[in-house]
Amino acid sequence: MRLSPIALALSLAFATVSSVGYSQKPDDQINPRSMALLEQGEAARKAGNFVQANDLLESSLAVDPRNRAAFVALGRVAQAQELPGKAIRFYKEALALEPNDLAALTAQGEALVQKGAVDRAKANLARIRTLCKTECGQATQLAGVIAKGPPPAVVTAQAATTVPAKGSEPPVKP
User: What single DSSP character describes residue 3?
Assistant: First the structure.
């Protein structure tokens, strides 16, 4: 009689723990509906229809939030719309799911260069080279983007926002 509440509690605990393991999907099995929406979104992005691509890719993530490729594709859409900050956020989400995703690291590095953060892009390049161990296409691609540098508008905007040191004279315009 004294052991029956303990036995009941243990059996209930074992039943709930064992049922949790059966209901979860492995990480490598992305919902096929999410993959179909991803393909449609990629096709719309390549066709230049960024609004439709964004909608389809967000729907893909609503179906399965573990779809890393959808985060990367959303980042590509944001980059095409010249929104590098938004793109970096999407790549960060993809890297949260898989920190060693070479496609996300490369794309994030490109967006960082687009934003003007070349030093952070170089950190991504170093990480890609560490993961590849030998020269790989992603490292070569990102190295080329870094060598090209940020767009001229970003460089001009950064130069215009520099503040002179305290106590120094402002430049005299002729």
Answer: S
- Is the CB of residue 75 less than 8 Å from the CB of residue 108? yes
Q: Name the token pair of 49.
A: 């229809």
Q: What is the largest CA-CA distance in the chain?
A: 99
Asked if 90 and 78 touch (Cβ cutoff 8 Å), the reply is: yes
Q: Where are the alpha helices (DSSP H) in 64-148?
A: 68-80, 84-97, 102-115, 118-132, 137-148
What is the per-residue pLDDT across 21-45, written as a single tens digit (0 to 9) for each?
A: 444 445 568 899 999 999 999 999 9
Show the CA angle centred on residue 105, arms to residues 44 and 118, nearest 5°: 105
Helices (H) and strands (E) in the chain, counts: 9, 0
Q: What six digits make up the tokens of 55?
A: 């909608």
Distance CA 24, CA 19 (A): 9
Tell me whether residue 140 is exposed, middle or buried, using C-beta atoms within 10 angstroms of its C-beta: 0 to 12, 13 to 18, 19 or more.
middle
pLDDT single digits (tens) 38-89: 999 999 999 999 999 999 999 999 999 999 999 999 999 999 999 999 999 9
